[in-house]
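Q: My collaborator sent me two sequences in one message, no labels, and asked for predicted structures for both. Can we handle them in order? The first one she listed is below.
A: Yes, handling them in the order given. First sequence, followed by its structure tokens:
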Amino acid sequence: MPKHHTETYESRGHIRTRVKMRKGEAISLCRCWQSKKFPLCDGTHNTLDNDRGPAIIKVDCDLDFLDPGAD
């Protein structure tokens, strides 16, 4: 996993995690809900009796136009 910055905060009563990444980097998001690093995948799904692997998110362009403070 690439070096990244993770920030968890509350917004409108919901816990949110913001991950800042650079072009070419990718992260895996947990879909089994059992990861000890949730919302990031830690591979726990491999020990479960289901077919849920992670959602893999890859940055393939520069997104300087996005407002980093937007919800």
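Q: And the one she listed second?
A: Here it is, processed independently of the first:
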Amino acid sequence: MKTHAHHPIQLGDPVERRGVVIAPLFPRTDPRAEYLTLDEAIPLGFHVTELDAAGSVPELLAKNPLDSNVLLYDGEELLGAKQNRILNVTVLVPARSETKIPVSCVEEGRWHARSAHFAPSARTRTARRRFARRDRAASLPRPSIPASAPPDRRRDP
């Protein structure tokens, strides 16, 4: 078997079980992911905005004009624009790109612009805390609205 010293991956010893062979892959050097955090990237020109003038609650647009990737963390809170949001997943925004990012609302009731771009918050919410809050809200009884209420206030059960 030939070895290629310049190749970044090294093949490990294969293991066979029930007719399936698996061979582990090992990096020849310590792997490094190079990126900036949101706090580091914003002063350099990275920004997060609404998708368009109308906005969309579950999605934002990350615009990265930098030569570096930017890592946005799951649970990171973004302040500003039409409504504060929280990131639903961890996203690596490639250098010189625009990427739609999935978010959730954390500021019910406001839907008007406070700023053109979002700013990072000092707070981060863990997935466990976000899901607990969502589950608590779903278990609360819904207020009943009388049939005599105007049609825009009624909702189907």
